[in-house]
Amino acid sequence: FSRLFFLHTAAWGSADNVGRYRMHYADGSTAELPLRGNHNIGDWWNNATLPDAIIGLSEKNAAGQRVCLYVTEWANPRPGEPLVALDFLSPLYNDKNDVDYLPGSTGVPVLVGPDRRRMGHMAMDAFSPDLIVLDDGFQHRRLRRDLDLVLVDDRTFLGNGRLLPRGLLREPSSALHRAGAVILTRCNLPQSISFGRLAAVVPGKPLFISRHAPYVDGIYQNGDPVSSGRGDPANDDFSLLSNAGVMLFSGIARNAEFSRMISEAGATVLGAMEFPDHHPYTHRDCEIIIRRAK
Question: Are 199 and 222 in contact (CB under 8 A)?
């Protein structure tokens, strides 16, 4: 073969290192195609031609949302030598087969689906994990848990005490008796609004508090990183925001909280673009953000 065409896509496919394809020749040698997010492979939500890939298929899923697959061409550097096998290697793979499992430096399998019990069985069969963590799993009672941790926002507490859609609650507050422990989030003692009230609602339950502590995940200039990652002392230095005019964009549950946090760090927020929680950013979104920032 003089070339191969790969039909593929990725979830959250914007990482610079998505993985790589390794082609094996009959003589035992190999060649590789590195996969770079937003270059030769993309997120299935993007539906946009990439620098080194084109859209191979674009259709609506069962929810009516348009998703796509990309086609990437690989030019075979040795077309005269037969190809006998092909591997996909994840970003965690190395030729010594020693994967570093330090938190924050390696990936963790993530399974997504409405049936948490089924997802739990799939996780056990595929990964034999020591620990499974469910997000928003308190109401999924078909999957037996060892511990339920329920988070309650210090600022909104239980809202008006009513269930969705008339209030904030997914279950009556009495359901908190099933929790192993309750964590009060966005809480800054001794100014907490809700700690005493929560203790009265769940007497005898272990209570914990947490607060949001911002950090700088990366510093970039003209698209190039100027810090070395989370371990770089520069990433905990917020002096760069002092008296700086900034343009914000975010796609989280409470975008206003992000804007407030940046303001408290000393910046002047000149503009902000708010997207829905877990928003799948597109190239069009990025173009608009850049134009607004300029």
Answer: no
d(CA 186, CA 197): 15
Hey, what are 88's tokens?
């996909």
DSSP β-bridge partners for residue 25: 83
Instruction: State the alpha helices, DSSP H only, in the chain.
Output: 116-127, 195-201, 255-264, 283-293
Q: Which residue type, as a one-letter code, is found at position 261?
A: M
pTM higher than 0.85: no
Q: Give the CA-trace dihedral at 17, 18, 19, 23, to 10 degrees.
A: -110
Nearest to 258 by CA among 277, 237, 285, 242: 277
- Report the alpha-carbon angle 47-52-54, nearest 5: 35
Residue-wise pLDDT for 33-92, tens only, equals 999 999 999 988 888 889 999 999 998 877 678 889 999 999 999 999 988 888 888 776
Cα separation, 23 vs 65, in Å, equals: 34
Give me 132's structure tokens.
């499974």
Burial class (CB in 10 A: 0-12, 13-18, 19+), 55: middle
- Alpha-carbon span 214 to 203, nearest angstrom: 32
Place of tokens 């499992």: 101
Q: Is 10 helix (H, G, I), strand (E, B) or coil?
A: strand
Phi, psi of 272 (to 5 degrees): -150, 135
Name residue, tokens 């859209």. Answer: 55
Listed in sequence order, the residues at least 6 apart from 30 whose beta carbon sits closer than 8 Å to its beta carbon are 22, 23, 24
The Cα 20–Cα 34 span in angstroms is 4
